[in-house]
Amino acid sequence: MKKFEVAVIPGDGIGKEVVPVSLKVLETVAEVHGGIKFDFQSFPWSSDYYVEHGKMMPDDGLKILKNFDSIFLGAIGNPALVQDHIALWGLLIKIRREFEQSINIRPAKYFKGLKSPLVNPNDFDLIVVRENSEGEYSEVGGRIHKGDDELAIQNAIFTKKGTERAMHYAFELAKKRRGHVTSATKSNGIFHSMPFWDEVFNEVKEEYQDVQTASYHIDALAAFFLTRPQIFDVIVASNLFGDILTDIGGAIMGSIGIAPAANINLNGKYPSMFEPVHGSAPDIVGKGIANPIGQIWTAKMMLDHFGEEELGSKLLDIIEDVTNDGIKTPDIGGTSSTEEVADEICRRLKKAVSV
Ligand code: NAD
Ligand code: IPM
Ligand code: MN
After folding, report:
1. pLDDT tens across 91-143, in order?
2. Relative to the alpha carbon of 73, which ligand is closest?
3. What Pfam families does UniProt report for this protein, alphabetically (predicted)?
4. 0.95 exceeded by the pTM?
């Protein structure tokens, strides 16, 4: 019996709704598999925790998390209670940084039964490899002066190591897929970082003669996501470009509530963290209508990470079938609740494996 110890952080808002039902799905996966077991330990670290303790997690929070095989997180952010930059830098970004989760993998694909807003959504299937530890998300800078002279400075930091790492990851991934990597650049507009980004991309691609490449400015690339997403296989993007592209990725599938993500630690020193693309959705919290698919597909990415790809693919097929049969939440045109969608996925998992 293989046992996986998973730290669970439901976080804020709909994180508290989509995480519990996803754990039920994972329990069902373990049950039908028979040879794996999850040991979930839940932590209440969130904006509510901040209100009570003055911090997003205890001082030894990272020490506690370090011993787990992975972290399964919902979403962080409740601007009514805590300012976003405090909440996010105190938990989510802190974990990504301290645990060297340098790559964020974010797939988007045409999904049976989903009403994409695109005129021609047929069969797109792409993965954004988002650089996850540096770039535009830097603490370097600050606010100076007061009054009318006040200004804010934000420095982006692109290291050769970090940039190469993201690109190598993208090329290796493309070799296992359709052999194509697109670089998201802006060398016409972001003066120091993006010409550098292009240079590194051109160097790295020399090592992968069997992989085709393309390079588009991020503005044009964002438009291509809407007009012809089928041209993309793997896209490598900086931290902020990747962030924005992947909300578009969710939107062209039909809802941002579907898009999954995995923050990967490559050196094996720390756990990786699995959390969907979407946030805590304060506008729908408490209504029982949050789409659980983003979180459940994220659970599938965690299964892949644990080497359980076969069950992972089965789970994704079932998610797609359930959606196609109209059991879906209102954001994608259905009338089902968060629970109903997840329960149906569990029911079909049991059925599929018992036949
Ligand atoms: P959001 O992703 O929470 O919501 C954007 C829109 O998408 C909302 O209308 C929301 O209802 C809808 N939506 C999101 N997930 C959904 C789901 N599963 N089912 C149905 N509809 C869904 O983005 P936002 O409104 O910009 O941010 C809200 C809060 O979440 C902020 O505090 C923000 O900083 C935080 N946030 C956290 C994460 C994270 O923890 N990974 C990611 C993004 C935003
Ligand atoms: C995401 C989120 C975060 C990010 C925010 C909440 C800091 O938007 O995971 O996509 O920008 O990385
Ligand atoms: Mn985002």
Report:
1. 999 999 999 999 999 999 998 888 888 888 889 999 999 999 999 999 999 99
2. 1
3. Iso_dh
4. yes
Instruction: Decide: 145 and 163 in contact? Cβ < 8 Å.
Output: no
4 in Cβ contact with 69 (< 8 Å): yes
The CATH number given to whatever domain includes residue 62 is 3.40.718.10
Domain count, the chain: 2
Predicted confidence (pLDDT) per residue in 15-71, tens digit: 999 999 999 999 999 999 999 999 999 999 999 999 999 999 999 999 999 999 999
Of 221, 253, 285, which one is at a domain's C-terminal end? 253
Indicate whether 92 and 122 sit together in one domain: no
- What residue's CA is closest to ligand 1, atom 25? 281
Distance from the CA of 321 to the center of ligand 3, in angstroms? 27
Residue 243 near ligand 2, beta carbon < 6 Å: yes
User: Which of 102, 94, 98, 64 minimizes the C-alpha distance to 76?
Assistant: 94
Task: Tell which one of 71, 88, 138, 239 to mutate to probe ligand 2, the residue whose CB is within 8 A of the most ligand atoms.
Answer: 88
Q: Which residues contact 149 (CB under 8 A, 6 or more apart)?
A: none
Same domain, 324 and 220: no
